[in-house]
Amino acid sequence: MKQARNRLLGLARVGSLLLALALVISVTGCPPKEKPSPTATPTPPVTKAKPAPKGEPIEIGAIFSVTGDIGAPLGDPEKKTVELLVEQVNNNGGVLGRPLSVTVKDDKSDSTEARLAAVDLDENKKVVAIIGPSLTPTTMPVKDYCQQKQLPLVSCAAGKVITSPVASYVFAVPQTNTLAADRIFDYVVSQKINKVALIYLDNDFGKDGRDNINAIAKQRGVTLVASESFGAKDTDMTAQLTRIKAKSPQAVLCWATGPGPAIVTANAKTLGINVPIFQSHGVANLKFIEGARDAANGVMLPAGRLIVYQQIPDTDPQKKVLSDFASAYKAKYGADPNTFAGHASDAFWLVVNAIEKAGSTDRVKVRDAIEATKDFVGTAGIFNYSPTDHNGLTKDAFVWVKIVDGKWKLEQ
Amino acid sequence: MTLADQLLQYLITGFSVGIVYGLVGLGITIVFNATGIINFAQGEFVMLGGMAAAALAANGAPLWLAVILAVAATTLVALAMERLTIYQLRGASVITLIIATIGASLVLQGGAKLLWGPDAVTFPPFSGDTPIRIGGGGIAPQRLWVMGLATLSVVAVQLFFRFTLTGKAIRACAINRRAARLSGISADRMVRLSFAVSAALAALGGTVLTPVTLMQYAQGTHYTLTGFLASVLGGLGNGLGAVLGGVTIGMIESFSSGFISSGYSKAIALVVALIVLWWRPQGLLGRRQLQ
Prior knowledge:
The complex is a heterodimer of chains A (about 400) and B (about 290).
Chain A: H1 2-28, E1 58-64, H2 72-91, E2 100-106, H3 111-123, E3 130-131, H4 136-149, E4 153-155, E5 170-172, H5 177-190, E6 195-201, H6 204-220, E7 223-230, H7 238-246, E8 251-255, H8 260-271, E9 277-279, H9 286-292, E10 300-303, H10 319-333, H11 339-358, H12 363-371, E11 376-377, E12 382-383, E13 399-404, E14 407-410
Parallel strand pairs in A: 1-2, 1-3, 3-4, 4-5, 6-7, 6-8, 8-9
Antiparallel strand pairs in A: 10-13, 11-12, 13-14
Helix pairs in contact in A: 2-11, 3-4, 5-6, 7-8, 8-9, 11-12
Chain B: H1 3-35, H2 42-58, H3 63-86, H4 94-116, E1 132-134, E2 137-139, H5 141-163, H6 165-175, H7 177-182, H8 187-213, H9 220-234, H10 239-259, H11 265-279
Antiparallel strand pairs in B: 1-2
């Protein structure tokens, strides 16, 4: 009798515990209140009714870092973008009259997983092309694989090494680290700054940035007084910044993605580093401003027009593409798309347009069509590909942005 | 910045990070003493505390309430974990139980990512962002909160174990479980209590640290491993030793980051810990065991 009563008590205890837990989870799990952003409601693009796509679906693959500390802020919106655009395409007659099917694989920000995903997409899904991966370190093994297998790849990562030296089957859509560094040094030189300190993330993206900066600094006659690095999981960069402060630079340049740059910026303010801080286009993401809070104000960076699309004049050739994409993304997901979502959109349309133009799903023909793409208006810029240029962008793809009052402000 | 300024900077960073390692290590020690197992999900409680507080703050809760609720919520999660894993496996071997805690840590990580997304989160510090100027550098006022609150909790826990009846009851279970039960102590209840206390400690550390370091769903693992190292370094089973171990590791990390290389700082801390254990296997405050 006592046993049964104890068992009941025990059950009741566990039950009430779980109930309390469920209550707590439901409260803390609520998505944070949306910060109201003033946007004019744009009219959705008018589309002619097209016959529903039919036949064997056209398979495209996508590899994104949907999870993983560095990659998730990039891969998650990229995945959402692709899903949004596939819907759009299939509601508008599909590709070559056939339905489009995209398989998105999560590489968890891990290079090995990325490569395995590529093998799976190639051998099991027999995709026409692959979009992604999101990061430079995850792209490199996939680049090797795709070039070997002659499978067109359009990466969403910004490392210069992805398209230089040019591999015939590998393309990229983000502005490269070279273009970004170039743009930053334009500003640096214009402000008569000649002593700069660098702090970068110790991975392929950060090291690619460092190499580009070393080269450009030398070219422009700017001295790099310090060059510090930090790890992806580091939560405190005070040591590196202390050493940087000791060298008295006139500006600090940070090259990283993930939560690192926000911590660097906050640490710099705590230490009393008052010189201008420049970031790479890798932080063109609201999460950076949220993470660095007050310290983010005053930070400057080169960025694609997407994060300031409302401030872009209507006369800009990219304006329509930017606002159409932003309104569609916002309508479906409730938030403005960030730069990385834009990259996924550019890669997606590049591939889809190439398939349409080639009139076939033959990998060689699609590759040729991608390489022949000219004047393609995307979110990152206007692309012009060629056999020697698989990135297709120039410095004009960037605008100069400053963070003011916790918001992106177009500077020139 | 003079050398003295740099030293002070590293000292404060090292202590504020180290004391959180110490809190985790203390939690691990408390659970170890009560159950004989190492709870490898301990670091996840740090993460949960921080992320829950950030979520509550983002929903409009005042900071003090967010912190209290976050710590309470994490404690509830720990109790649920105890009931659903440790208690269910109560006859199993120590190794099985430890593996179960590793499994639990993965579940908690996955849950956090599903609930709050993959991005790092933060919330405003308790007393503002304005750095306190020290010499040529500065410290975030939040770090003082970390050091203060963490030290207070360590002292409170030590007092609890030494002077309250319940605290002594838990210690009794650790010394000899059967004798404790014969004395009328419910070992079961003591185990639950030790989980709750250790989770609350970890969660407090997590919430106070998040405004400075941000918190992400995968950050718990680092705290688990370092907290475990701290408890071993201090002498497994000795709570004060775990805290001492944690602070030591934090200091070594900070100073080696400053003077040698940031990339190798964690490895250097590990090597130093190993050297100490080689020289003194029972840990800094542990008692020598008879072979």
